């Protein structure tokens, strides 16, 4: 009787006496479906005791439950934050939020505070989203990871699966329940990527302000404007307050005295958030018959920023002198009777309209010049009757003094400058400014939250919690989450289907004589298409052997030689490389096009860069595409989902290369296996199979790109307030803004990331070990250790040629009773495998099987 290396223990129950038969058939012993469900949930709840030793083979359930607890905690935090925000937003203090649902105001006040709150909350949200997506990713890995049973079934059908990474190949063999859970986890992650960060956002408020001039010796009792309706109306519309109120504020300390350069710098901003009325101070000699002047001659520019951008003011970079043009609050309206050589005496009101045409048609140069001089004097000095008469009677002012003396006029009223827009303003007086008075206003920047976005995120969070709980109820054991898990499993129980193919690589599984077929993509009960072409004809040097669990089925195995040294990029399939390069190049080309377009919208590269980094500007605002806040948020965050996909693909590609690089190290050094749940001398696996020196820079680079992208195009909400302090809906705006500088930096960081990835792919492996990467069949083919190498999975192992003299698996064993049929003529072939025993370096000219 042979020795059974894996005995089966059978417990035989003693027969019951006849007196106990009746007890055996009580109605209470009939299975109750409801009780069965309760028992399953009770068993699940018992698993929430996360401390203690987990059942061997089911350790992943503890990880899934930990992720469920984490996701549930984040759900509770999100619900609490929503309730607190709702109470704050819709309490009696914020009456403006009533009837508002898309966005609700949480705070209104200092811009720095609202910005800091928004930044702090965004940091918290990013931390929560990162943890949430990480937990979701772990559970998705558990759902998509094949078990040893899945691998055995696939290999028995000459199919293979991916270990340590997700693929459509794995999705095809998942049952319907796992597919639905996996898809729900994937779909519920999309809103978190796109809109979670936009649940809180800040809004800037721009304050319109009035500008006027006063003399440097203004007295507290001096009236700022004349006692006429036109002046009062002009002053009120420009400043937003009565003249007497402003005069009182000038002398009670409301206004702060500062230099001309300093005040111009503070007000020379596109969106003014903290300053009100600006008063320039000049010498008394520039004020005629008035105690204040308004700015004039700037083509409707109403702010210092607009004046400076329009080159209407002269402020040298290193000088503190500022010269501005001025005009009066109101003008005396004169009816002139002017001698004209064509028509005799002609009446003109303030020389507006036909006066200029008449003086041109007259053909008299002196008359044209004198008419221009009279119009210029009238605009620049707003003279009284006496001053105007004296000016006309002074011969030195005119080319034809007799004509000027013959001009008569009469006052017919008082009007503002807007009533006489046709007056030639070239005579506006240039007034040098000595210093300024500025007024600080209460800031009105706001912090908003969006209830619809918060509700969508919470719903997605609930979906994740439910899916994770249901995943923990899936009864699966021995999951292959990492390549090390598969190595440990195949070393413990070798796979007979890959016997005799010790140099099998992933590339040989997809093409060539040893290629296996792939399963079709199956979605529920619907079958898709087959991904793999048929294998080619076998080579001449083949020998017959058994490669399946069926001892009666003989298939071909093919001795082969060591492959040449490969480069890292060859560890990744061309489809995966093509997908990564497509997304990278598409993103870079799009970034180049957008950066070029942004620069073309300005006066050049230097002007585009001078707009600043992620600064809101009317020049770079995308307006009128939509006024819906949700639509604008989705538009601004759509590139983020593309970048997330690119990160996922790059992570997967880098994982493939680094798994192959670690695999290659086993051909050079004896090392313990890295597994998900270490036993013996095994070590814990890296997160996502990436060593920290790669994973940390990758996460930093990804976070940097996400942040740069958020600064390249972003949602803006600008509320404008007029000089009266009321919201000006006409000047308020909502849209998306882009930053040329941020786009330019993002483009180069993307190019750098692609360059680093390609340069890693160009590195060469240090041994000739075949590349298995994530291919389950190639992994199992490398795990046929010598007979007697018990417990190799828990010891340090090395891959290499098994030396002659060691007992190999080409001898008859209870597991392979047919092996003696194929031992003849194989002594000339070598055998390579992972083993805890000593190995030698394989020969480049020797055949191995």
Automatic annotation (TrEMBL):
This is DUF6536 domain-containing protein. The chain crosses the membrane at residues 60-90, 180-196, 453-472, 577-599, 698-718, 738-760. The keyword Membrane applies. PANTHER family: DUF6536 DOMAIN-CONTAINING PROTEIN (PTHR35395:SF1). Keywords: Membrane, Transmembrane, Transmembrane helix. Residues 60-217 form the DUF6536 domain. InterPro entries: DUF6536. The keyword Disulfide bond does not apply. It comes from Aspergillus indologenus CBS 114.80.
